[in-house]
Specification:
Length: about 160
């Protein structure tokens, strides 16, 4: 064998969920430092980025998107609403559901950080080329769509929330 490429030795070296988790942790933690320097907690950044440019979403859906436990999102939204960054609105037809949307003030606050995030993403994906990067994102979006029905991990570690 003249190949310089090492064959994976451990199960997790070739196991998709482990590879996705490791890549997410490494890439996210690089940017989380930038977010903190800009005055955002990781959870605030996730919420603001998830709401920016989109329609209002339920608190439960926001928890899924941000990969954060719902009680944590609710407490965070309390603070962010007090600061005028988000607002809660009632669902049109289901009074049990509360929707959340970003305010103009919140969108203005997170705009610069989203630009920095886009620059970070470009640097991360640049070695792979535009076509492969778009294929990867399309594959991940499809994977999320196909598995969105799966129950969330109720035993999620507290450390996972800081991803």
């Amino acid at each position: 064998m003249g190949s310089t490429e090492r064959k994976p030795q451990r199960f997790v070296d070739n196991y998709l969920p482990a590879l996705l988790a490791q890549a997410s942790q490494l890439i996210s933690s690089e940017f989380h430092e930038v977010a903190r320097q800009e005055g955002f907690s990781v959870s605030e950044w996730r919420v603001m980025a998830s709401l920016a440019g989109g329609d209002a979403v339920s608190i439960g859906r926001l928890a899924q998107i941000t990969v954060t436990k719902q009680p944590t999102v609710t407490r965070l939204l309390d603070r962010m609403e007090t600061q005028g960054q988000v607002e809660r609105i009632p669902h049109e037809s289901d009074r049990r559901i509360t929707l959340v949307r970003i305010t103009r003030k919140g969108a203005a606050k997170v705009e610069h950080l989203m630009q920095l995030a886009s620059e970070h993403e470009r640097r991360v994906l640049e070695p792979f080329g535009l076509t492969r990067a778009e294929e990867l994102k399309n594959t991940l979006r499809l994977m999320i769509q196909l598995h969105a029905h799966a129950p969330s991990d109720a035993a999620q570690d507290e450390d996972d929330e800081e991803r």
